[in-house]
Design brief:
single chain; 353 residues; alpha/beta; Four Helix Bundle (Hemerythrin (Met), subunit A); Rossmann fold; 2 domains; seven-stranded mixed beta sheet; 12 helices; globular; binds 5-S-methyl-1-O-phosphono-5-thio-D-ribulose
């Protein structure tokens, strides 16, 4: 895959760019130290970029996959003409398998496929599919602004918050989910500062969340993941605000590994726990947290840091990259459709009806 540098500084809103018919992804593995874009020439490049974490975060994985479907259709139309729908099937399967936990990936591909079903066999499908991918992208940004304001409305008194991983513009079409709430709360004068877990092993907190918040002038202090309990014990933090990769029909929430322990310590300290996510992250076909596929990645990611081996030779590692927080530990799920307090199966069903 070719790399490209823009003739201007990158911004968190540049996670996915469609420019002159090209799909460019800001390489999040290199942030904040380098702002390099990867040019995905086809759906296979796109799937690899998702698997390799060039782009990461559930909603933006969905947006990226939607553009990947456009590339698949382009190649299929050029290669198979009227047989394009059948010809792009393998590419769509590759995209769908790129990462298992973020349900937005399958959600976006299903939406693109549904549109494709209604298109003519004998006309280039790219314009219609591109319009749908752009709609998915723009709707995600709009949803984040709405849910950001709704989430901020739950914060009653000026306070500090803790967030985990990166659920910002980089992880979404733009504005962010958890960081959308934080941005809206900051604008409303309700925020003293943000504590951001560094989020081992990919350090999405220290590399990406801190990058986004510093650029916005929102005060951010990093915490080693294990320091969150001690910070909550000190006081002055009323809310934990996180995103999600998949919310089950009973309100159980999958998110970056470490979210579950944060929810437990929040409960122990009387700190409220908010999950901010668009409805595209809610999987009504998944009855409970135990049904959510949890991605386990290469143990090398944990045994090393910054590309350098840090663990003692001979040690192995268990590296699940998401965990499930039971609904009983969640005070609020906030989507673009509204706020679900103390979520359970009945409330989720009503919300999604
Ligand atoms: O492994 P990642 O970086 O893709 O994990 C991302 C997260 O867990 C985010 O918190 C989640 O996708 C919500 S992003 C708005």
């Amino acid at each position: 895959m070719k790399t490209i540098q823009l003739d201007r500084p990158a911004s968190p809103d540049d996670a996915v760019l469609w420019m002159d018919g090209d799909l460019l992804l800001l390489d999040q593995r290199l942030l904040p130290h380098a702002e390099v874009f990867i040019h995905c020439e086809n759906a296979r490049d796109t799937a690899r970029a998702i698997t390799d974490m060039v782009v990461r975060g559930a909603p933006v994985i969905g947006v990226t996959a939607a553009y990947g479907v456009v590339l698949a259709a382009r190649d299929a139309w050029r290669g198979a003409g009227a047989g394009w729908r059948q010809a792009m099937k393998e590419d769509l399967s590759l995209l769908a398998a790129a990462r298992p936990t973020a349900v937005n990936l399958g959600w976006a591909i299903a939406r693109m496929e549904k549109l494709a079903q209604g298109l003519a066999d004998d006309a280039d499908p790219e314009p219609a599919l591109l319009a749908e991918a752009k709609a998915i992208h723009e709707e995600d940004i709009a949803a984040n602004h709405t849910l950001g304001d709704l989430g901020a409305s739950l914060i009653e008194h000026k306070t500090s918050v803790i967030t985990h991983c990166n659920a910002g513009a980089l992880a979404t079409g733009g504005y962010g989910t958890a960081l959308g709430v934080i941005r809206s709360a900051w604008k409303a004068g309700k925020l003293d500062q943000v504590y951001a877990d560094e989020t081992r092993p990919w350090l999405q907190g220290s590399r990406l969340t801190a990058w986004e918040l510093v650029r916005d002038g929102i005060p951010v202090s990093l915490l080693a993941d294990g320091a969150a309990a001690a910070r909550l014990a000190v006081g002055s933090v009323d809310w934990v605000v996180v995103g999600s990769d998949r919310i089950a029909a009973n309100g159980d929430v999958a998110n970056k590994i470490g979210t579950y322990s944060l929810a437990l310590v929040a409960k122990a300290h009387g700190v409220k726990f908010m999950v901010a996510a668009p409805t595209s992250t809610i999987d009504m076909n998944c009855p409970g947290g135990g049904d959510i596929p949890i991605e386990t990645r290469d143990e090398a990611e944990l045994l090393s840091c910054g590309g350098k081996q840090v663990a003692s030779a001979g040690a192995d590692a268990w590296n699940p990259v998401f965990d499930v927080t039971p609904a009983g530990l969640v005070d609020a799920i906030v989507t673009e459709k509204g706020i679900i307090l103390s979520p359970d199966a009945k409330k989720l069903y009503q919300h999604m009806a």
